[in-house]
């Protein structure tokens, strides 16, 4: 019989959700807990080698109902999450039983907010259920208010919510701002909060100083434990051994083996490269891709552009990238790229992990949000945290090449760049403080661990 508490983590199989879950799990292991991560069978089968390199975590599998092709095999987002609930409930139940029969009983299930049914499995076994919201508190709060009928949809602008800055429609998460465009995603986003009151613990991937007002506002409804940012600690210069915490671990995408990105960056002057990435899910249509390509070219800076394999056919045919000035790759180690001295600006879609990474590594941003939480994140980056600028769209909803050039040049201008870096440096220091002994996230992780350990006694 194990003496330390055993946590079973249930992430959803998107890179932006998986990475903060794995980081939290590693933190829990460093506190002496045993952690098993339940990957979907499809994700597990495609990442076996990487799992072996993450020896501090145990991996096991559950089914999302799409064992051979994963999310891409689903006919819609509704179809995906409906099947995940059915297959996931069954296989998660089996996994908990199996661990018990092997003498490693589970004490707590930590589950991504997008699979609220995992709480039913925890309750069925009388073990703790900890929901983990991997997006910023501002976005979680908006979804929560809509779920409780405290914020009506359609939203009227300006939207005034206590704890949040005044927001225009373009700042609201797109699933709530335009539910008619994303009916399935709207349901999934809002349903994260359907049973949150019954969860034993509510974890949020942010830190107190970054979002104090909205954290206080949301805490009036439900007690929150903020535990972020989940950027690997070595990048924040914290106390954990750098060799132990350098990487996120499991990547759902692969870099082009033939391209040596660190070498290419090392040949570029300090602060001269624009790093461009739209994360793991957002896509651009051909026209927008063309505007971006030529906006980058017009800016006349070096650029490293991540274009996932599934997006590459949309690159304009006439856009020839000379390897001297620009480089297009399928995927990269974003943390390493952002840490490179050569990078002077991050042109990003505004995914939550990308933003916390850029702040932690003090890289000024141009944010071009596409959907989901990115619009709200962009608002905070520009107006609240002041660590970057947001692009403007034209009347047809496109971001033109001239706008892209203007924003990049603005952020790369020496004085402006310094201002943005100074702000980012302040947030980085606060992030470090939050995660250091006695800091808000540190204390919350300790409180969580204590709850687990005492429930075991
Ligand atoms: N990422 C990466 N290499 C890339 C692009 C992205 O490692 O070429 C990582 C990035 O560091 C971040 C995650 O993928 O941790 C993307 O998460 P984010 O929340 O920024 O965006 P999402 O993919 O969820 O839209």
Automatic annotation (TrEMBL):
InterPro entries: UDP_glucos_trans, UDP_glycos_trans_CS
Family (UniProt): Belongs to the UDP-glycosyltransferase family.
Protein name stated in the entry: Glycosyltransferase
One Pfam family, short name: UDPGT
GO molecular function: quercetin 3-O-glucosyltransferase activity; quercetin 7-O-glucosyltransferase activity
PROSITE patterns: UDPGT
Record-listed E.C. numbers: 2.4.1.-
Keyword presence, Transferase: yes
Cross-referenced Gene3D superfamilies: Glycogen Phosphorylase B
Keyword Thylakoid appears in the UniProt entry: no
